[in-house]
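INTERNAL AUDIT FORM
Audit reference: QA-55
Scope: verify that the stored structure record matches its stored sequence.
Auditor: D.O.
Record contents follow.
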Amino acid sequence: MTELLAKLNPEQRAAVLHTEGPLLVLAGAGSGKTRVITVRIAHLVAQGVAPERILAVTFTNKAAREMRARLAALIGKERAKLPFVGTFHSFCAEILREHGALVGLSRSFVISDGADQLALLRGVLRTLQVEGVTMQAGDLQARISLLKNRLIGAEAFLAKAADEQDELVGRAFTRYEEELARARSVDFDDLLLRTVQLLKRKDGPLAILRERFRYVLVDEYQDTNAPQYEIVRAVAGGHRNLCVVGDDDQSIYGWRGADVTRILHFERDFPGAKVVRLETNYRSTEPILRAANRVIAHNTERHPKELRAALGPGEPLQLVLAENDSEEADHVARDILALVGRRAARFGDCAVLFRTGPQARVFEEQFRARAIPYVLVGGRSFFDRKEVRDVIAYLKLLVQPDDELAFARAIGAPPRGIGAKSLERVLAHTATKRISLGQAFEEADTIEGVGAAAAGAGRD
């Protein structure tokens, strides 16, 4: 441990060694925050803290995997138990599997992903009508998610509906929740909400969790939303051994309910908190950081900090104003060829970043025309492929036979002679009768517009 601590800079070391009481680590971009978190956990273990008493929460599965791998290297894979390192959603799912009955969930509840939610919301919209108002399922999904992330329920929102569109959202939100419950399913936002509800119950597991996790660490704290904030405050509220790491200058998830004031008001929420600033950047050169510091300095509501470059001076930044996207892509392509031509870089050393997916097309056209090899990153996920989603639907049915979204998908993979119109009529029948899709197919012979062949195929 002495060797590990010696490799840290003074600010990083201060963050690692402060183990008791609330700690805010303001970690600027490229300042080694993951190293600080993992070495801090290793230090706690070296001081005699049992690994299973430590909870580390991240925002992405990728970050959790990276952190677990680093911890395994630091404290050893041979330990019987490692700290819980995972996302908010995985942490909440584990709690709900064990204690969810207190908030009306079975242990075998199904988690509906984005595509499942869209399919369900399309069905909901088909059954609702508000004169003069139309809405796409994707827009409705975003509205409901934002409401949940602000701890606003369907009933409370509908009661304060300001116009016809709000009324449609509120009614659809209510029906959506009913359909999820009927399918014994929750969405990802529900994992957080149900956990908040669970921790507020007098007979809930809060005392157990506080005793189990004596040290809590939260990564990317600037991006926490209201439910996540409530969960953190509840679990760490007893012992106050809470370390949050983040950077208010990098708060980018306001559109999904994140509130940067959580990190700005940390010292108010946790009186006596120690604040450590990580201001040495190990990723970028001075010109990049100088420009970034000048831009962010215009933000008046922030923790004061200024990044310094460990790499020293570098190439000056270039700003090119193009007439249009084609001219921009042409300039980028010529620059790449020039770099490679004078052996200043290889093709694989170059990266092109753009704000939205559709902007890739014009760059691809230029690269193809000039025979520049490239790899397009961020395409369709493996789990979004049709054949993979079909298999997952069957697996979900094995675990939860009442999962209607999985049933609706599986019934068409492979095709069984049940057309889209017939399936739509059966789905409408389930909504009207408040019965499962399987039960509806048992009654399909009585549904107008559903042929005998389709009814028989559904029952089979």
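Auditor finding: record pair retrieved intact. The radius of gyration is 26 Å.
Action required: none
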